[in-house]
Write a structure and sequence with these properties.
This protein is mainly beta. 0% of the residues lie in helices and 48% in strands. The protein contains no helices and 13 strands. A hairpin with a 7-residue loop joins β12 and β13. The relative contact order is 0.20.
Length: 180
């Protein structure tokens, strides 16, 4: 995952030059490499070779849910959560907000998707558009259940981390409309 900008450089006597070291990991892991620069036709043993170690840690963007009130925990190794809003009288509403935090070390490119359901509304969130959730920032997903018929219904929200599908989260909101 390490690269240098120049493989060969010519440095004038008493001169300097800058070489970029690029770190582009493709997995979350710790990496080590030895950087070595040799002077061609060098005659002084102590200055013929420059050598040092470099360590770097690769990471992937991650998100987590931080509001877990009235929530059915997901199955082990699952990222799908169920939120039951219970019964709601026709003409009335119930609100529930789920908060997502970028708890990783780097910004996360995320996308929120849903399928429209007449009994549920997701407020103040751009749908199907990619956006950046900065480190330690929070995204609120305010959902309103407003039943228009006597029935059970559910609403699914997917939060995709575009650079790390293993961090995706799914939420299923369940509600039931009733009348007296």
């Amino acid at each position: 995952p390490f690269e240098v900008s120049e493989k060969t450089v010519n440095i004038e006597p008493n001169g300097t030059t800058t070489i970029d070291l690029i770190f582009a990991p493709i997995t979350a892991d710790k990496f080590q490499v030895i950087f070595e620069a040799n002077v061609k036709n060098g005659t002084i043993l102590e200055t013929k070779c420059l050598r040092f170690g470099i360590e770097a840690v690769g990471t992937l963007p991650t998100i987590s849910m931080i509001s877990q009130v009235d929530l059915k925990s997901p199955a082990k190794n699952s990222s799908s959560y169920s939120l039951n809003l219970g019964k709601t009288l026709l003409g009335f509403t119930k609100d529930k907000t789920v908060a997502i935090r970028n708890d990783g070390l780097i910004p996360a490119r995320i996308q929120v998707t849903t399928k429209p359901v007449s009994d549920f509304v997701l407020k103040n969130v751009a749908m199907d558009e990619e956006f950046i959730l900065e480190q330690n920032h929070i995204l609120n997903l305010p959902v309103v259940f407003q039943p228009d018929k006597v029935r059970k219904s559910q609403f699914e929200i997917g939060v995709s981390v575009l650079d790390n599908p293993k961090a995706n989260l799914n939420f299923v909101f369940i509600g039931e409309g009733y009348s007296e």
